[in-house]
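A favour, since you know our structure tokens better than I do. Go ahead and set the record down below.
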Amino acid sequence: MVAKIIEGKHFGGCVGYVLKNASEIIHADGLRTTSTHTITQDFNLQRKLNPRLGKAVGHIVLSWSEHDKGKLTNGLMTEVALKYLKSLGIADTQCLMVRHHDRKHDHVHIVYNRVDNQGKTIANGNLRFKSVKLCKQLNSKYGFYQASGKEKVNRGRLKGADKAKYEIHDALRAALRVSRN
């Protein structure tokens, strides 16, 4: 399992994306799930408790390897996602978990409100570093497949810092092959 963390400003676009055709809601907390519109309304109502926060949309994608396909159920994915959020300190807030079936690998989109139920901001400092460590722990605890190297990474889908990191990695490996000292 790996995680991709995204922050945004608008719940409407995020909720609209995660609730596309090949998806199913597997967990919701503090939200009416009758439609995309009601979910967005509920997120925005709570957001008004802290109007100064610019990026109130928390969006995390948890992706599992194709090797784990047989053991993943909606219940297990929800359990792992809830432990993941709690360990990162993301609690006491609205949360929507949507499972997508549009790729070979199973993945869950987690949309949460960075404004908690009391109107306080949920911190996002060092979230990416904590997430990497936590994913390794959860993989080990649940027996999920963990790739040993970087060979299986789909480089064509990478963007931003992740894309740059892998370009540097690949360039260094190529240079090491021809280096003599």
User: Anything to note?
Assistant: The longest helix spans residues 160-178.
